[in-house]
Amino acid sequence: MDQNVINMVQYLLVADQKKMPIKRTDITRYVIPDNTREFGDIFDACKKALFNVFGLKVLETPEKNSYIIVTVIRDSSLWRPEITSQIDNTHGILIPILSVIFMNGGETREENLWKFMNKINLTPETKLTYNHASIVLKDLLHSVWIRQMYLKREDIGRNEKKEFMFSWGFRAEYEINKLELLKWVCEVYGDGYEPHMFKLQYKRALSHDKMLSELDQEVEDTEPETE
User: Fold this and answer.
1) What is the pLDDT of residues 47-64, one digit of tens each?
2) Buried residues in 127-137 as b, exposed as e (16+ CB within 10 A)
3) What do you get for the CA distance between the two ends of the chain, in Å?
4) Are 185 and 150 in contact (CB under 8 A)?
5) Taking every annotated instance into account, which residue ranges of this chain make up the domain MAGE (predicted)?
């Protein structure tokens, strides 16, 4: 394997640990500063190596020229496994937040999120451990999770009043299995609840599960044949 490809694979794996989108400009600056014209070929080879060796897929974000890395391993996990070791104790809060958004039709006002979190004794100033440091919950909600693309935030306030609507971010769409999330919600609600009882959410969850399956199949179809 070309050394440039090896270096790029190593860089992407390390950069992905922070779960922030990886910019093309940073890749070229730190990996191939003298071979920028060859970026396309090297990057394509890097993506193939990431899949063949690690079972990972590189996705370009809606912002263009920036990328995230997701697993293509299919199982019954609620959270696709590559990230659970990287976010300390915050994923246990992010999952319920995403479930509130999902169960409210895909978006919800910030006040609804805090009403929910208050019920489980969480406030904006609740301190958590993230990246081996202390952080308050409101900073995760309004900064970290947005930059990581787990959440999207839209300002819907009028005049000088700030009011925000939250929805799932690009990364969450590929790392969280909505069908498994709906099953988890039913478990939380208790006996007697089944995913199909939530017609809108169930329909969207099935569609999302199909999308994830097609993404994984797309990668499998590109895997080189072995003799």
Assistant:
1) 999 998 988 999 999 988
2) ebebeeeebeb
3) 19
4) no
5) 1-205
Strand, coil or helix: 85: coil
Q: Which amino acid is at 112?
A: N
CB 169 within 8 A of CB 158: no
DSSP 8-state symbol, 87 = S
The pTM for the full model equals 0.86
Q: Cα–Cα distance between 139 and 25 in angstroms, integer? A: 27
Taking Cα atoms as reference points, which of 97, 102, 139 lies closest to residue 117? 97
Range 103-108 contact pairs with CB under 8 angstroms and sequence separation of 24 or more: 103/185, 103/198, 103/201, 105/200, 106/167, 106/168, 106/204, 107/165, 107/166, 107/167, 108/165, 108/166, 108/167
Contact call for residues 202 and 196 (beta carbons, < 8 A) = yes
Q: What structural domains and CATH numbers belong to the chain? A: 3-71 (1.10.10.1200), 81-210 (1.10.10.1210)
At 97, is the pLDDT very low, low, confident or very high (cuts 50, 70, 90)? very high
Q: How many CB atoms lie within 10 A of CB 23?
A: 15
Q: Does residue 223 carry a pLDDT above 70?
A: no
In 3D space, the residue among 188, 187, 225, 219 whose CA is nearest the CA of residue 58 turns out to be 219
